[in-house]
Amino acid sequence: MSDVIIEVKNFNAYYADKKAVKDANLKIEKNKITAIMGPSGCGKSTLLRSINRINDLVPEFRIEGEILFHDRNIYDRETDVYSLRRRIGMVFQRPTPFPMSIFDNIAYGLKLIGVTEKKEIKEKVRWSLEKAALWEEVKDELDKSALKLSGGQQQRLCIARAIAIEPEVILFDEPTSALDPVSTQKIEGLIEELAEEFTIIIVTHNIGQAARISDYTLFMYQGEIVEQNETTKILRNPTHEVTQQYLSGKIG
Amino acid sequence: MNENTNFSQEVTKRARKSNPVNKGMRSKVTLRVITYIFAALILSLFLLALIPGIRYWNLDFFTQAPSNGMTSGGIFPALLGSILLTLLSLAIAIPLGMLLGIVLSEYNLEYIRFVVTILSGIPSVVYGLFGLGLFCITLGMRTSILAGALTLALMVLPVISSSVYETMYAIPRELREAAYALGARKSEVIFEMLVPSVKRSILTVSFVAAGRAIGETAPLILTAAVFYATNLPTSLLSPVMTLPTHLYFLSASYGKNARWMAQGTTSVLILFVIVVYTIAFAFRREKK
């Protein structure tokens, strides 16, 4: 691997006494799409949510080990978790538009990073909506409540909101599991395009999705990373029995 | 024997088949009738109290002070006093109630929430006595608009904060996480995302609180109101007349000759409450 942006080292995560991630080690390459796959409850979301430290908000969550972002441990005392989250964006399973206008949804994040000039905000709103392939659909109704958009549009708005503040990495936590097939297809296409500029880590339990869009795949089972490799290799020649079972639909 | 069992089974089967439908229909009709009866009762109560007073309304009624032992003139000082007290108490209670509601929802303060719930159940006269002791006597405000407004504010504070708490608490966790995921600090999540998204509810509860504050009588008798003020209030430390206390004094101490004024005042109060709640209701519906 040439350009490693994130490295997870001997990482364990717990909810109270329950171990959710066991001794995870992995490297994430820049501008690639890495899929984290596995049956529900395997710890894939926990691992993802540790990378931007959003799980810090969960009471009784604790970790051991390191996650390096540009070679610096994000769990260090000195880490500014707020600027970390600006550089590692996230899109959630269910669309999470704020109950405000489409425009304000994106402006919210921009104001957080200190963009105050109206013209600049307008430009960035447009830029991010275009990137998220939503501009054409909403350009005449930016003042409309974001809650009035369809589920797929809401999810694309959330993607626009995430990229507007120009993070380096975007984490996707099963971004299409609440959407219809057409919206799913759009978002998958979008994620592939975004990989040109951003590093992408996507949690999915959809094998087809991992196959369609990801460069690398990690397979997790019961908290452990069982296998990690280029997606095509994993799908063609899974070396571990559980991966084979998962891919053939015997577990899931 | 066998035939008998079969027969009775058949009967039960039929009963089971037909009964639920009948029952459903019957209970629907019953419910509807009960609803209509209650609606009619409430409506007639409103109308009986509202209609008779309206005929006394004219320009003088709203612009003059009462005169000749409450037998002529109008209710202007009481109207003014009520408006002042309501506005001032809301000006104090809305920001404080919002803050309290936000703190309750964003920080885990179970026991304070318990206290607030109890506070909202305390009879208003107790608030009046508390206000009398604290504001009028200890803090030296005497019988005044300020003392009354503070007492009213204390009374509606739990109403506002509970409602703000409920709406804030109902905002899904994912939404907070989404804001944090953009790098927001707690204050930026609260004041720039959560509060703007509940502002309509805050507006709604403000109107509900106004409806409650304007009708309060006992606490005002103890802290702010006089039965007759010769002058209009000149400062926040002046005593005032208010609509509900005026109504109380009229009914308790003046005879038949003042009855018209009591009726007119009642109508004003009821209309005010109707208007305020209609606005609150409209806001709530629009939100949905």
Query: Helix share of residues of chain B?
Result: over 70%
**What is the CATH third-level topology name of the domain at 4-96 and 168-247 in chain A?**
Rossmann fold
**Largest sheet entry of chain B:** 2 strands, antiparallel
Biggest interface, residues from each chain: A-B, 25 and 18 residues
Helix and strand pattern of chain B: HHEEHHHHHHHHH
β-strand percent of chain B reads under 5%
Tally of distinct domains of chain B:
2
**Count of distinct strands of chain B:** 2
CATH class of the largest domain in chain B: Mainly Alpha
Structural shape of chain A = globular
Average pLDDT rating of chain A: 93
Report the total helices of chain A. Answer: 10
Supply the key terms.
heterodimer, A: about 250 residues, alpha/beta, Rossmann fold, 6-stranded mixed beta sheet, 10 helices, about 35% helix, B: about 290 residues, mainly alpha, MetI-like fold, 2 domains, two-stranded antiparallel ribbon, 11 helices, 2 strands, about 80% helix, about 0% strand
How would you portray this structure in words?
The complex is a heterodimer of chains A (252) and B (288). Chain A has helices spanning 44-51, 81-87, 102-112, 118-131, 135-138, 151-164, 181-194, 207-213, 231-236, 241-247; strands at 4-15, 18-29, 33-37, 61-69, 72-73, 88-91, 169-173, 199-204, 216-221, 224-230. Chain A is α/β, with parallel strands linked by helices. Chain A has a domain at 4-96 and 168-247: P-loop containing nucleotide triphosphate hydrolases (Rossmann fold). In chain A, the strands form two sheets. A six-stranded mixed β-sheet of chain A has the order 6-7-8-3-9-10, with helices on both faces. Chain A is globular. The model of chain A has no long low-confidence stretch (mean pLDDT 93). Chain B is mainly α. Chain B has helices at 2-54, 59-63, 76-106, 110-119, 124-138, 145-170, 173-181, 186-215, 218-223, 243-253, 259-287, and strands at residues 66-67, 72-73. In chain B, strands 1-2 form a two-stranded antiparallel sheet. At the A-B interface, α2, α3 and α6 of A face α7 and α8 of B.
